[in-house]
Amino acid sequence: xxxxxxxxxxxxARKTRVRPAHMQGRRPVASITFDDFPKSAWEIGGxxxxxxxxxxxxxxxxxxxGRTVKGTVFYDAGDxxxxxxxxxxxxxxxxxxxxxxxxxxxxxxxxxxxxxxxxAPFLNGAKAESYAYPFGASSVRTKKFYAPHFTNLRGVHPGxxxxxxxxxxxxxxxxxxxxxxKEKLAAAIAGAQHNNGWISFYTHxxxxxxxxxxxxxxxxDEVLKALAQARIDVLPMREALAVALG
Length: 246
What we know:
The protein is α/β, with parallel strands linked by helices. The protein has one domain (30-245): TIM Barrel. The protein has 9 helices and 12 strands. The strands form 3 sheets. Strands 2, 3, 6, 7, 8, 10, 11 and 12 form an 8-stranded parallel sheet that branches. A two-stranded antiparallel ribbon has the order 1-9. The longest helix is centred in the middle third of the chain and has 15 residues, at 105-119. It is globular, with a radius of gyration of 17 Å. The relative contact order is 0.21.
C-alpha cells in the first residue's frame, strides 16, 4: 500500500505544473549531470567531459562529502574546488539525500539551508541554481517548496524537455547501465533536433564496473560523441536553461 501511495504521489506531482514555462530556444541543447556525486563522476567523468570540451552539473549532497557509503566512494572538498575552477556547475541534491515527500516542510527547509551553508564556500558568493530531487522523488508540496529557491529542478522521468515544460520538475534521460541503449540515445537526439529541445542526461558513478545506476566511460563517451556529431551544445543546467527559454 505504501509503495502504491508513493507511485500515486509521484504521478500527481509529474502531472501538476508548479512553474510552467514555454521553451522558445532556437537550437537544441543538452546537459550532462551527475547525481549524488561519486568521486569517479569527477575523476573519470570529468576527464571525459574535458576531452569533449564540455562542462557538466554535479548535484551535491553535503552529507556524502569525504565518505564511502555501501562501497561507493564519494567526492571530497578538493573535488568541489577543482570542478568549480574548471567551470562546471555545483548543484543541490539535498544535504541528507532523502526522498522529499517523506519529509515535513520544516525538515525540508532545514535540510535545504544546511546544504546551502555547506556549498557556500565553493560557490564564490553565488547561490546554487539547479536542484535534483533525491531518488527522483517529488510531490506537489515539495515542488512548491523548492520552486522559489532554484531556477530549475530536475527529476528522473524519461523524456526530453520541449514545448511547454515545468521548471519545477524537468524530464531527464538516463545514462545508467539499467536502462541506457543506443536506440534511446538516438531517439532523444532526433527529438531535440526536431523540436529544439533540451536533453538533461543523468548518471551516478563512471567506472568500468558500475552499479546499475552508473555508467561506463564508454557510455558517457558515446553520448558526448553523438551530441557533437549532432552539433548540440553541452552546457551546465543553469546555462542550458537560458538557451532553452530563449
